Amino acid sequence: MAGRRNVLLIVVDQWRADFVPHLGATWLRTPNLDRLCREGVTFRNHVTTAVPCGPARASLLTGQYLMNHRAVQNTVPLDARHMNLGKALRFTGYDPALIGYTTSTPDPRTTGPRDPRFTTLGDLMDGFRSVGAFEPSMDGYFGWLAQTGYPLPDRRTDIWLPEGEDAVPGATALPCRIPAALSDSAYFTERALTYLKGKGDKPWFLHLGYWRPHPPFVASAPYHAMYRPEDMPAPIRAASAEAEAAQHPLLGHYLDAIRQASFFERADGRGAELDAAEIAQMRATYAGMISEVDDCLGRVFDYLDETGQWDETMVIFTSDHGEQLGDHHLLGKIGYFDESFRVPLVVKDPDAPENAGRIEAAFTESVDVMPTILDWLGGEIPRSCDGRSILPVVHGSRPADWRRFLTYEYDFRDVYYSQPEGVLGLGMDEASLMVVQDERRKYVHFAALPPLFFDLEKDPHQFTNLAQDPAHAAEIRDYAQLALSHRMNHAERTLTHLRATPHGLENRLAPTA
């Protein structure tokens, strides 16, 4: 180390964990992610603690569970009082740069109702300095396209239509209209290299976001043809969407409500109506977009190599959430299935080269990323953090009190583009679930709907709900108690370590003489 500590936090969007070659997807071409896995530690059992984008990124960047930060859905405001990674890094002397987005809606108490940020899906989280914005409304990317001379259509999202087509009849093998050199992935990469080349010898922190492999599922040439549909893993699903829907009312709602148009520009019909061939093509396109992101990362990694910064930079690679991709007849990131919540996590710590290439089985959660970065930089981890630093695990020494199970949450209240409450007969604050999951069992607790319980040893893909089976009543009780205890132990605690005494304010966490 040359006395300089840099951090590159790579946050891709909608990349599920089983599409990582180091974890078994050997048919994927990702040489740069492969390199990062060889030089870092890859976590096999990592989850985001919330979906979709806004809640997931709030948890990732505040280190807090959904139950505490309460930005429970896209478009729901994030309370301004919460500490986040950007704010915390400023206490350590870093100017945290961000490329991409955080899908954060501002606290309305800090601004007025006419603030344009309330007309979009999300904006940037306070504390970060944007050096390559995507939000709001993708204006940064579209402005860059216009500056290159590319003729933007009146309906700007038409750039993601296939060549020669005015609509997408489901999944397509045709290339995207936009060339790879002008794709959104290329845009983020150019912004990253511009930022890094301007830093000189100053230490830096960069949140490098990529939108892909988020839909629309159409890839630029040559990535559209990089993978054959027949080589893709088959979807894991029941014999029919109707059979799948019988498992739970929430699942039934999404099987009926999710539309193909959210994933393919100008498509029609339900997502559950995709046949096996269309799913295979969609997965091939998804894999192509992954390889495009990987090639872009290679340009960033090459620059860090050329300038001697690779060996003094912590690199963390993760995703905000996963993607159902046809599993359980679903598209998107919703509900309670693993495909939506299991995401990649790779950590390259230049202080621990002896652990390079290891696959770690410890349970980790997205709320661990913020305290890990602060720990590595010597910053103070906020009391409000629900996660903990994984540096000891990266260094090969898992603490004896490490977590024994994973938890994650999903809030499915009505938002502008989705209204489950009326369909399910729920009130706004009843539309939520929490999952407790270990190697053996998975318990899904709903605030006002029937629970789910799965035997992961016999039923790893969660087709058979045992919640009403008397033979499992004692186990279900134990997991329900585990969920309740976990919530109680992680209740908001920013100030709970302080107490007034006759001698003044006392900090119970302060070191004693």
Question: Brief description of this entry?
Answer:
About 25% of the residues lie in helices and about 15% in strands. It contains 14 helices and 15 strands.
Question: Keywords for this structure?
Answer:
513 residues; alpha/beta; Alkaline Phosphatase, subunit A; eight-stranded mixed beta sheet; five-stranded mixed beta sheet
Task: Please give a structural write-up.
By secondary structure, this protein is an alpha/beta fold. The chain has one domain: Alkaline Phosphatase, subunit A (3-Layer(aba) Sandwich). It is built from 14 helices and 15 strands. The protein has helices at 31-39, 53-62, 66-69, 85-91, 139-147, 184-198, 241-245, 249-257, 276-306, 338-341, 369-377, 391-394, 420-424, 473-489, and strands at 6-12, 41-47, 50-51, 97-100, 129-133, 205-209, 313-319, 345-348, 359-365, 406-411, 432-437, 441-446, 452-455, 498-501, 504-507. An 8-stranded mixed sheet has the order 5-4-6-1-7-8-2-9, with helices on both faces. It has a 5-stranded mixed sheet with strand order 3-10-11-12-13. The radius of gyration is 22 Å and the shape is globular. The two termini are 34 Å apart. The mean pLDDT is 96.
